[in-house]
Amino acid sequence: MLERIAAALRRLGRQFINAIWRLGYASRFFLLVLLRSGTSFRRFRLVVKEIYFAGVLSLIIISVSGLFVGMVLALQGYETLQKYGSAEAVGTLVALSLTRELGPVVSALLFASRAGSAMTAEIGLMKATEQISAMEMMAVDPIARVIGPRFWGGLISMPLLAAMFSAVGVFGGYLIAVVLIGVDEGAFWSQMQNAVDFRYDIVNGVIKSVVFGVAVTAIALFEGYDAPPTAEGVSHATTRTVVTSSLAILGLDFVLTAFMFRGA
Amino acid sequence: MPPPVENLVEVRDVDFSYDVRPVLKGINMAVPRGKVVSIMGLSGCGKTTLLRLIGGSIKPSKGEVRVAGRVVHELDQDELYAMRRRMGMLFQFGALFTDMSALDNVAFQIREHTELPESMVRDLALMKLHAVGLRGAAHLMPAELSGGMARRVALARTIALDPMLIMYDEPFTGLDPIAMGVIGDLIKKLNDVLGATSIIVTHDVQESLKIVDYVYFMSDGVVVTQGTSADIRGSQAPFVHQFVWGEIDGPMPFHYPGTATGADFGVGAGHA
After folding, report:
1. Is residue A6 in a domain?
2. Residue A70, exposed/middle/buried by CB under 10 A (0-12, 13-18, 19+)?
3. Domain count, chain B
4. Which domain holds residue B48?
5. Nearest C-alpha of chain B: how many angstroms from A133?
6. Are B95 and A141 a contacting pair at CB < 8 A?
7. Do the beta carbons of residue B54 and residue B14 sit within 8 Å?
8. How far apart are CA B123 and CA B116, in angstroms?
């Protein structure tokens, strides 16, 4: 009995040490990516290529999702607001929900599923097929040449995608509230303009999306770089990217919201 | 012993372990300039580990590896990268960059390490592809190449910067006999034309014995024998004989060690 407890404690201790070790390794990796980012800026076309893969190719899923989220918000918002005679405020509700929360959070979740998982799989497969080793043997630093441009590409894409999500979402809300339900168009837009503050709502939303961009891209790249060079290893790494990124987004969102929006 | 000429690569008393498992034990080797030297042995005997030590990807637990007179594991990253620019390595399955055409794969190093104009980079890459007979396949993507062609493109990429040392990790694996012959012939010719030095890690005996000047034979992390191709072919050492002539049973037994046969099948006393 005592031996079984000792074995369980040893297992727990080993898992804890592994987790700490992995966290340290991930931090070192992230620091190296930042330190070796010179190549990304000197040869910005490498970053532009990654913006295309991570950002432009995610536009369709982001736009379609944004449209539906905006439409649902308008339907639900109208349902509630009309009970209090404030149906015109539906534009405000849609815009604030999107710029403060849903735009950054949902677009980051979609970004993690689409671009993050693709990054992990790509880097993991490059490692499994010895492309990363080949690059090192050619005296080309893979952190600077492969990881850096993808990191900055993801980081730049994320706020742009979140902005696109919010913009399309507001349009979706307009379609439902004004075109379908018949809320007054002038009231819809003017109330929205009055309620949405650039610094408080838009900038804070952009800050959130930048933070989510850093988190998702760093997690995706680390998982790919750290993946065991096997089919199973890459598959597990891809799954871990989506799960860890999603949890990180939601956790960070809570922390950021607590600091940014305190009823001021 | 190899002839007494200047050695480009020297491995002295090298030990290496993965965690606590010893992979290399007291390895000594010398690779003379301009020669093609082969390291042979069964899978898992430490051949590729030795290549990685020479390339500076890993550090020995004991001893040292010298390339062009410099101890590889004592170099800092800039010095190591400077040395690697004068090395080339052909990986087992080519390791071509899958998002680039054959031409861009070959041009990759030239673009990364030189400031040459794009037209010259293209011409140089095409010349390297021409040397391996694949100038006409310059526009093809790796997925469109056969195994042998991919290996030749990888070879062209390996020699893109005219390296002083070329390392080959199992260059014949998975190739048909014609492609194998082509690769073997190219390795020898390119080594002579470029004035390079080549190290081939392989377990393909017959193909490599045709082209190499000297052979180190490894087993279980140590060099068990060495000599010229003729020495190896004529060796009467049981392990070497079994390996060279592909005999099924010998010092390396056909049966993996296990419990007695009788014990597994329940038919009384058997043999292991």
Report:
1. no
2. buried
3. 1
4. 7-253
5. 8
6. no
7. no
8. 11
Contact with chain B for residue A35, Cβ under 8 A: no
Q: How far apart are the first and last CA of chain B?
A: 39
Q: What is the pLDDT of residue B3?
A: 46
Cross-chain Cβ contact B85/A139 below 8 Å: yes
Distance CA B75, CA B52 (A): 15
Structure tokens at A229: 């060079």
- Nearest-CA distance from A113 to chain B in Å? 22
* Residue A10 lies inside a defined structural domain of this protein: no
Q: How many domains does chain A have?
A: 1
Query: Chain A within 8 Å of B98 (Cβ-Cβ)?
Result: yes
Q: Could you report the average pLDDT of every consecutive run of 10 residues in chain A (264 residues)?
A: 90 94 93 90 91 93 96 94 89 94 95 95 94 92 93 95 96 95 92 90 94 96 93 94 96 93 68
Q: Strand, helix or coil at A138?
A: coil
Query: If you search the block for the tokens 């597990």, which residue do you land on?
Result: A236
Strand partners for B37: B199, B214
Question: Nearest-CA distance from A226 to chain B in Å?
Answer: 16
3-class secondary structure, B37: strand
pTM of the predicted protein model = 0.85
Domain of residue A202, residue span = 36-260
Q: Tokens 């993801």 appear where?
A: A154
Asked if the structure places residue A177 within a domain, the reply is yes
Name every residue whose Cβ is closer than 8 Å to that of residue B164 and which is 6 or more positions away in sequence: B8, B68, B86, B87, B196, B197
Is the Cβ pair B81, A134 closer than 8 Å?
no
Residue B24, beta-bridge partner list:
B16
Cβ–Cβ contact A134 with B under 8 A:
yes
Q: Is B49 on the interface with A (CB under 8 A)?
A: no
Asked whether residue A19 is assigned to any structural domain, the reply reads: no
What token pair was written down for A121? 């799989």
d(CA A80, CA A69): 17
Q: Which residues pair with B216 in a beta bridge?
A: B39, B226
Chain-chain contact of A138 with B91 (C-beta, under 8 angstroms):
no
B95, A133: Cβ pair inside 8 Å? yes
